C-alpha cells in the first residue's frame, strides 16, 4: 500500500545468482530462498507493504556476517540486516531485493562485567532475554521499546522507550560496537572505558544508522543496578492538557522520575479492554515510576503528587509488584491494544518529539486535528522527553483512510518541526519518514550523504533507507 | 620541543598571499599577521612547542567564519579554529601554517530556554561566562574542564571534568551544533528536541572532531537546575589504594555522586601550597560533592561515609559555601599548582581512562613506575569515570627529562589500552596523542579516515590532528 521512497535498482540477475551460489556454499541450508521465509523477512510490525528479499542468510558469527557482506559487495547485492522485524518504518524492507542477514541465531550474552556495570552481547539478543539473564546478578538494562526487539536492532534504530527520561536512549547506553563495514571488514568502534576523547565518535555514528553504513554484530552495553526501591503510580486527569502539564512541571522541577507516560482517553480505553485492567477509567492518564532508595522514591513521589494535585490529578500508588507489572505490561502492549480496536486493521505509528515547553500545544493541536479527521487513533507518549505517538488504526484495504492518516501525520510532523522538534523521536526513518528529512535537516542532508557514500561507496547497505534519493 | 606528528605540507606562498589579501579585504584589521598574535595562537597550555599560523582571523559571526573558510578552501589554506587556547595536546598548533580562526569575539549567549532547560551560545562563550549569565535563573551548565575553556573548544575536544560522573561529558550535553563545513556551508546538526532517531548523529560526530571536519560556531546546550542542596566532603586516606577503592565502591553501589576526585600525596602537597589550603595534609585524598534534595544529599553522603570508613578514610564535611568554593577552586587550579612546583617548568598532562574495575591496578602500577622514573609528577583523577591524569612537571630545556616523561606516559597508555581503556579520557588527541591511535582503534582508523576525506577532501581543516598520516 505504500511504495518505497528511494529508487534503488535491483541487482543484476546473473550477479545475484553467482552471489547466492557462493552464499549457499558457505551457509548450506542457513541460506533460504523459500517464499514464506523471504516474505516474513520483508514485513515489519507496521502498515508498510511487504518487500521481500531474494534470500535470507542466517548468520552464526561476526566472521560469517563479514563473509556474507564480502560476497554481496563483490557482486553488488543489497544487504539488509534483520533482528526481530519489529521496526515500524519499513527499515527491513528489501525494496531493491538482495540478501537479508538474519541475526537471530547470534543470541549469546558474551560477557557480563558486573563490577564495571557493562556487558557484551551478540546483536540478536533481545532486551527481555538480556534482562532475564541479568536478573540474578541484580543488574538490568533499561531501554525498552514496546516490542521485545533485538539489541542490535535497537542500536540500529537508536531506540528508546519508557525509561529514556531517566536512563537515556540507545545513544547514551552503548559503550562500543562491533561492526561489519560495507567492504566486509570488522571494526570495533571504541574501547570499554566509560569515556574517551580519542577520535571520531564512531559508536554514535553507527547507532541510528539503520544498517545503511554497516552491520552491527556485537554490542558493549551499559548496565544499571536494580534500584533498591521502585514504586509506580497512576494518575487520571480531568483533561489532556492537565495531564501533559503535570508531566512538563515534573521535568522542569528536576524530579529524577524513571518513567512518565501519557495515555489519552482512547488509548486508555484500548488498554483497559486489551489488558483487562480493573479500576481504571478511559480518561487521560499518566503512569509514573520512581527508582531510588526507599526514602528517595518516597520523596520523588510526594513531589509529583503535589504537582499533579495542582492540575486536578488523582494520584494513586501501585506499590505491589504484581500491580506494577500489570500496569507496565499494559503500557508495553498498547500498540497491540490499539491494533485490537479494529480486527484486521494495522497500526500506523507516528513519533514526533518536541522541546517540552511546546509539548502541550503540539498534543492539543494534533488531537483536535485527529478528532476533525474522523480517524481512529490513540495517543501514547514518553512525555518526559517531549515524545509522543499517535497510533492510527487503518484498514489496509482502505486507501482513502490511509491517505487521511498519512496527511494527518504529515501535518503533525511539520507542526513538530516548526516547534524545533523532530519527525521521529525513537522509531527511526526507514523509508517511511524519508520524505521529512529535507524539512528537518536542510543542508545537513548533504553531509549525511557524504558519509554514506564514503562508508558504503557501492550503496549496498540497506539501500533506500534514511536518505532521500 | 616536540615535532608535529603528521606531515602536512605548507600552503603555496602565492596562494597564501592571495587568500590573505581577500581575508584582509573582508575583515580589515581583524586579520592579524603580527608575530606576537600569531605566536600566542600557536601555543596551548601544554609542553608542546609553539606552531604559529601565518595569520589570525578574528571572526564576528557564523557567516563570517563561512566566508573565511570559503576563501581558505579556494586557495587550499589550512584553517585552525581557536577558542581560548587552553587545550593540552597541540590541538591549535599550525604545523602547516595557515589561518587560525579566533572565535573569542563570538561570545554571546543567544538564548536561554529555561522551560526546556537548554540554551544557545556562540562558540567563544566560556564556561564560567555562561554560568555567570545563568546564575540568576537558577540554572547551570555542569561540564568543567580545569581551564575556563570556550564552549566551542569544549565541544571540539569532547571535554568533561569533575562533574562528568553525574552529568556526562560534552557528548551527552550538546543538543545541536551550528557548523561551518570545509567548503564553507553552514549546517545545523540537529533540532532542539531532547531525542531524535532521524538520521546520522552529526552532533556526536562533530563533538570531539577537534576542528578537523568543520568549525563549530554555535552550540545548543542542555542545562540543569541548580540543585536544592549541595554538600561537599574531603576524605584523606592512609594510602592510594584505599582512596581509589572507596571511589570504585561508591560507583558500584550506585550512589549518584556529583563529583569524586582523587588527589595523590604529591598533588595534595602542590595544591596545599598553591591554594593555601588549611587543615589538609599531603596524603591521598578524595574530594566529594553531592547534589540533590536536602534529604537525598544527606543519604548519599552517609552511604559514602560508611564506604570510606571501611577503607580507613577520615570523611569530613564541608557544608559552608565558602569552604566548598575554596576546595573546588583548589581542585580546578591543580594544573597550575603542579606547574608551580618547579618555576620555569611546564606540565605534560597524561589522560588515560580505564574500566573502573581496573582503575586501582592501573593507578598503582603507574605510580610505582613514576616513583622509579625519578620524574616529578602529580596524580589527579576523575576516578568515578575511571579517568586520571599524571601531570609531569618537565623542564622544557631538558630533553632527557621530557623523553623520560614521554616514555612513562607511553607505558601507561599501553597499560590502559591493555585494560580496554583509552589514551585520552577528555583531553583529546591533537597531535600529541596521534601515535596511540592505531593501538587503540586498529582498523577503525580507516573508517575515521574515510569520514575525514569525505567531509574535508582538501585536507584543510586543522591538518595533522587526530589521524595518523
Notes on the protein architecture:
The structure is a homodimer of 469-residue chains. The first copy, chain A, is globular, with a radius of gyration of 22 Å. The first copy, chain A, is an alpha+beta fold and 469 residues long. Chain A has 17 helices and 19 strands. Among the domains of chain A are: 109-225, 2-Layer Sandwich (Uridine Diphospho-n-acetylenolpyruvylglucosamine Reductase, domain 3); 229-336, Alpha-Beta Plaits; 341-428, Alpha-Beta Plaits (2-Layer Sandwich), CATH 3.30.70.2740. In chain A, helix 1 (13-27) runs antiparallel to helix 3 (62-74) and helix 14 (359-373) runs antiparallel to helix 15. The longest helix of chain A is centred in the last third of the chain and has 20 residues, at 399-418. The two termini of chain A are 20 Å apart. At the A-B interface, strand 9, helix 8, strand 11, helix 9 and helix 11 of A face strand 9, helix 8, strand 11, helix 9 and helix 11 of B.
Which terms would index this structure?
469 residues; alpha+beta; Uridine Diphospho-n-acetylenolpyruvylglucosamine Reductase, domain 3; Alpha-Beta Plaits; 8-stranded antiparallel beta sheet; 5-stranded antiparallel beta sheet; 19 strands
Topology, please?
Two copies of one chain form a homodimer.
Chain A: H1 13-27, E1 31-32, H2 35-41, E2 55-58, H3 62-74, E3 79-82, E4 99-102, E5 109-113, E6 118-122, H4 127-134, E7 139-140, H5 151-156, H6 164-167, H7 170-173, E8 174-181, E9 186-188, H8 202-206, E10 214-222, E11 224-225, E12 229-236, H9 240-253, E13 259-263, H10 265-275, E14 285-292, H11 294-310, E15 316-318, H12 321-332, H13 334-339, E16 346-349, E17 352-353, H14 359-373, E18 377-382, E19 387-394, H15 399-418, H16 437-441, H17 444-455
Parallel strand pairs in A: 2-4, 3-4
Antiparallel strand pairs in A: 1-2, 5-6, 6-10, 7-11, 8-9, 8-10, 12-14, 12-15, 13-14, 13-18, 16-19, 17-19, 18-19
Domain FAD-binding PCMH-type (chains A, B): 49-226
GO molecular function, one term (chains A, B): D-lactate dehydrogenase (cytochrome) activity
Family (chains A, B): Belongs to the FAD-binding oxidoreductase/transferase type 4 family.
